[in-house]
Target: Transglutaminase family protein
Amino acid sequence: MKFQIRHETTFRYRDAVGLQPHRLMLVPRSSHDLRVLASSIRLTPEAEVEWTQDVFGNLVATACFSGSADQLVISTDVTVEQFASAWPIFRIAPGAHSYPFTYSEEERADLGALLKAQHPDNGGRFDNWVRAFVRACPTDTLSLLKDINNGIADAIAYRTRDEDGTQGPLETLTMGSGSCRDMAALFIEAVRHLGFGGRAVSGYLHDPDQLLHDAGSTHAWAEVYLPAAGWIAFDPTHRRTGSANLIPVAVGRCNKQIMPVTGGYIGAADDFIGMDVHVNVTLT
Model:
C-alpha cells in the first residue's frame, strides 16, 4: 500500500519574535516493510536546514532561522509504501516462546536503558497490576504481551489531550483515561517491569475504515524486542499488534525524545498565542 502524508504545524505569536533552532522529526523511518518514496519540508519563514541522525538512527532536521516572524509554518509531504501484513506471523526464537525467558548477554547490553522501568513504584502497586497479567509460569510470550495490550485498552479510555508531556503510568491507571502517548507509555513501563525491552514510537496512523480514534493522524505506540522476531509493534489505543497501517517516524526510550517538532522563541512569555496541527494520511 502507498500512503500520502501531509503534515502542517503552525505556531502563532502576538508580535514578531526571534525563532530559535527547531528540531524536526517528520520523515518516516525506512525498514524492511516501509519504504520512503518521496519527502519534502517547507518552512515559512525560510530556514537553513541541517540533517542528522540521533542515537536511535532517527532522521532529524534542525532548522535555523534568521530575522523574526509572528508566525512559523512547518509543512511536510511524504509518500511511503508499506508491505506489513495485517495478520503477521512472528518468527520468535524457540527459547523466547515461553515467558519468562532470558535475553542473551549481547542483547541485554544493547537494549540497555530500554529494559529499565522509568518511574518510581512506591508500594509496588504498579508491579502488582502488571504481574496480574501473568496467569501461569511459564506462559506464552506473545499471548502475554497481547493480554497487556488489550488490558490497557479495557482499563484506559482514550481521550484527546492537548497538554504537553506524558502522564506517568500510575497517573494514567488512576485516572482511567489518557491520550495515545499516555497509553503507549503505560504499556512500555508494564513490559519493562516484566523484563522485556520496550521502546516508544511516534509516527502516523492510517485507519482504513475511518472508525477509530485519531484515524489518519499523528500517533504514538510501542514496540517490544523479541529474539529473532525483532521489534514488534503494539498499539494499546486500538488493540493492535503488528505494524500494518502504522507509519513510524522515530523511536526512543520515552515519548519526550521523539516529539515531531521542538523549539523555542525569543520574546515575551505571552507572545505565544497558539499552535494548529493538521494531518492527512491517505491511500494513493
User: Anything to note?
Assistant: The mean pLDDT is 94.
